Amino acid sequence: MEPRIAAKPQQFEESVIRLMTRLVNAVGGINLAQGFPDFPAPQALKDAACAAIQADVNQYAITWGAPTLRAAIAAKYSPLLGRDLDPEQEITVVCGATEAMLAAILAVVDPGDEVVVFEPFYENYGPDTVLSGARPRYVALEPPDWRFDPDALAAAFGPRTRAIIINTPHNPTGKVFTRAELEQIAALCQRWNAVAITDEIYEHLVYEGEHVRIATLPGMWERTITISGLSKTYSVTGWRLGYLLAPARLTVPIRRVHDFLTVGAAAPLQEGAAVALRFGPEYYADLLAGYAERRAVLLAGLQAAGFHVYPPAGAYYIMTDITPLGGTDDVAFVRQMIKQVGVAAVPGSSFYADRARGRTQVRFAFPKRIETLRAACERLARLPARLATV
Ligand code: GLN
């Protein structure tokens, strides 16, 4: 007899994003699927982490984060949130925003409770709701501008709603939620006593509009869990460092969950992170300028290759529609693209619970050196001819 496997992991599959990474690596192609930089992280950050290892900062940090890092997070975010953050009670350091999201959901949601999720959504949020036993209620973001219908949002809330997951700037669409949209969400959270769990990992990558933090809206600090991390802002996706900012009442259960999921994030890397969190405004301006250039290069290349593009207002992905290239099945299309020209992207259906809604969409990531993006664009220019001969 074969050993039994549990019901929950049968409800989701391996990450499509990481599957695409493996497929493109197998052919030595260019990976515009998984969003991670192919350029170096800041020297001062690396030096500080190396120095911490040499100084034997090699044992467990405090479960909820090294004091140096929590102090640096408080210093950076207190002005952004317009309140004095208390590192002792309101900040938790975890192993990446991925753990942060799961810890946040497990902290506030019981099995059977409902969680509102905008669709398309970053693929983790689906399995997160399964693991926590939450019942997702999806609200559609409609192309081309990825707005939602306020009535549909209101209808998704009810007495069982415990939380809403927000991601701004948004993966995969690049949508930057407007103040008016966040005010609507805030009003519903207050009406139904729900928590806003907001993933703001792309907070520094905003090309159009402004990054509004729902935690700063009136009455929202008390019911908001803000998530961010080091991966995107400091180009260290493999360090797995994230953090949550939340009022003490919500931080207590978050810390309990985190403690028994992972105990703590890597201690020496936290010392490096504490240095990075104190970088001045010029660091963030340079980061944004670099990404704006990468965005422009890839947008032009995708358009030239015949994709319909949805220019992103933020984050580092471009959603496209493959209909002009004759694409009707996103998964088959990306597999062909990897095979024919050696460029990987993510099939749009992996961002939808109702997979059919993403069938003609494909997401490209652009946290890459300009030469990597130019090489990808040259390959993509050959795509229409190659597809025609398949
Ligand atoms: N957030 C990144 C993306 O969407 C990386 C995904 C992952 O592998 N965790 O591509």
Give a quick summary of the entry.
The protein has 14 helices and 13 strands. It has helices at residues 16-26, 43-54, 67-81, 96-108, 125-132, 150-156, 179-192, 230-233, 248-262, 267-276, 281-304, 330-341, 370-381, 383-389; strands at residues 30-31, 91-94, 114-119, 135-140, 161-167, 195-199, 224-229, 242-245, 308-310, 317-321, 343-344, 346-347, 361-365.
- What fold name stands as the CATH topology of the largest domain? Aspartate Aminotransferase, domain 2
Q: Give the end-to-end Cα distance, rounded to a whole number of Å.
A: 45 Å
Spell out the helices and strands N to C: HEHHEHEHEHEHEEHEHHHEEHEEEHH
The CATH superfamily of the largest domain is Type I PLP-dependent aspartate aminotransferase-like (Major domain)
- Label the structural class: alpha/beta
Q: Using only CA atoms, what is the Rg?
A: 21 Å
| Fraction of helical residues | 40-55%
In CATH, what is the class of the largest domain?
Alpha Beta
Bound molecules: glutamine
> Which CATH architecture of the largest domain would you pick?
3-Layer(aba) Sandwich
**Strand fraction band?**
5-15%
Mean pLDDT: 97
Count of individual domains: 2
Number of helices: 14
Give the total of beta strands: 13
